Amino acid sequence: MTTVTHAAAPVRILRFDRVQRAAHWANAILFGILMVTALFLYFGSIAGFVVQRHLAAQIHLWAGLSLPVPLLVSMLGPWGARMRRDVRRINLWTRDEIRWLRTLGRTPLVADKFNPGQKLNAIFIGTTIVVMLATGSVMQWFGHFPVSWRTGATFVHDVVAFTVFVVVFGHIAFAVTHRDSLRSIFKGWVTESWAARHAAGWLKEREASPSGPEP
Ligand code: HEM
Questions:
Q1: What are the residues facing 191 on neighbouring strands?
Q2: Could you tell me if 109 and 97 are in contact, meaning their C-beta atoms sit under 8 angstroms apart?
Q3: 3-class DSSP assignment, residue 193
Q4: pLDDT of residue 213
Q5: Cβ 127 under 6 angstroms from ligand 1
Q6: Pairing of strands 189-191, 12-14
Q7: 65 closest CA partner among 123, 122, 119, 141
């Protein structure tokens, strides 16, 4: 008689709910549109071949003005509890996390739900939205501002745009090489064993929660 043993299915833990995933992808699409149209605006000569500059500028402007919407909608209202909790996490830094970042990950760390690199990326994106919205508005409604503001706003907009390209490509490179993290932003869950390896602090916190682990 042969005995068949089934390996136990890995335990799944919810990392991002539907609201968070929708906000992430809406934000990513808007960033994508902004980056593509930014290329047309910056390299005016390519624009002429593919799309009229005026059209590129209008798409860029409307995508830019919509940029804060997904994050705001995902945070405000009863559906945003998880998002708000994660925003609080991202703003909370321990000494160990700062040391880990300073040593480029060479010191030991019992990682939270997000490691310091992921926290820094989220803070960068949040700050970028505010800075680009402010500088882009000065560039659009330039008649209301002195010339020095217009020049400064264009300079800051261009410099931040360059860093956006670097950070977004870095983010995508990390995402495609970390399949479990990538799956969690599509499907929402990670396995318990992944959490034990990469987010042990979060796992411990879930287990110690008096109301039991989050669903
Ligand atoms: C990921 C975010 C963004 C990137 C990478 C980006 C990048 C750029 C770049 C490279 C230019 C060309 C500047 C030049 O010609 O020197 C530009 C122009 C502009 N951007 Fe953005 N931008 C972003 C977000 C925004 C936002 C949020 C707004 C909101 C108002 C905005 C409004 C504008 C305007 C009005 C222009 C001038 C368009 C024209 O020349 O007619 N941008 N942007």
A1: 12
A2: yes
A3: helix
A4: 52
A5: no
A6: antiparallel
A7: 141
Backbone φ, ψ for residue 178 (5° rounding): -125, 85
Around 149, how many Cα atoms within 13 Å sit in the side-chain half-sphere?
Answer: 13
pLDDT score for 209: 74
> Is the beta carbon of 132 within 6 A of some atom in ligand 1?
yes
The pLDDT score that the predictor gives to residue 211 is 58
Q: Is the CB of 191 under 6 A from ligand 1?
A: no
Centre of ligand 1 from the C-alpha of residue 60, in Å: 7
The rounded average pLDDT for each run of 10 residues, N- to C-terminus, in the chain (215 residues) is 64 96 98 96 77 91 98 96 96 96 92 95 97 98 96 98 98 95 96 95 85 53
User: 54-72: b or e for each residue (b if 16 or more CB lie within 10 Å)?
Assistant: eebbebbbebbeebeebbe
Instruction: Give yes or no for a contact between 203 and 196, defined as CB atoms under 8 angstroms apart.
Output: yes
Nearest ligand 1 atom to alpha carbon 44: 15
Tokens of 50: 């593919």
Report whether residue 157 contacts ligand 1, using a CB cutoff of 6 Å: yes
Ligand 1 within 6 A of CB of 30: no
Which CATH number is associated with domain 12-200?
Answer: 1.20.950.20
Atom 21 (ligand 1): residue with closest C-alpha? 136
Protein residue with its CA nearest to atom 30 in ligand 1? 136
Which pLDDT score is estimated for 159? 98
Q: Which pLDDT score, from 0 to 100, does residue 10 have?
A: 86
pTM for this predicted structure = 0.90
Return the number of other C-beta atoms located less than 10 Å from residue 146's C-beta.
Answer: 9
